[in-house]
Write the structure tokens for this entry.
Amino acid sequence: MALPHATSAQPIDIQPLGTRLASARTVALFKATDIEVMRLILLAGSSVPPHKVAGDITIQCIEGKIEVTAEGRSQILTASQLMYLSGGALHSLAGIEDASVLVTIALRTS
Amino acid sequence: MALPHATSAQPIDIQPLGTRLASARTVALFKATDIEVMRLILLAGSSVPPHKVAGDITIQCIEGKIEVTAEGRSQILTASQLMYLSGGALHSLAGIEDASVLVTIALRTS
């Protein structure tokens, strides 16, 4: 069942999923005019192949451990770590441990 | 001492500050082309008066408890809760318990 997207000023829970992580699915939390936010589920051994988006993004690890490859290097993100990637930067993600990740995308409209 | 701003693909720690919260200061974590992120320290009893910014923003409570007034209502955000506010929405923030908050601002350049 798809969750309804949040609206402006509506609180959204982003607690770690813990034992529910293994059966969770990636969800879009909301899409506004300038920003879109999703919670990405990236289980150990799974990956998101190299891709890029027009606008800047932030990647915040909520739980688990992922590897982010971008800007010519691969780096680990663990819980409570954040990075941004410049718009247009080719990047790939890999789950090192079962992880959930908050991804915020700046939507470039011009 | 000002922290140097993070660059693209550089991990940034956003763990709760815990006992260091009471003496911490608001810091800008980075400013990219489309997105700016800061960690706002909002101690109990302190507030940010009503204001607005052009682009959409997200407000994520890392620790503590804040009250967000916007869109005609006041709501509590606690640790691991997030909300977005539409660009141009008048909003104010108040610390209910000592809190640190991740604020992501979409920079509208057009």
The beta strands of chain A are 12-13, 27-31, 35-42, 47-51, 57-70, 73-78, 81-85, 91-106. Chain A has a mean pLDDT of 94. Residues 43 and 98 of chain A are 4 Å apart (CA to CA). Chain A touches chain B through 46 residues (CB under 8 Å).
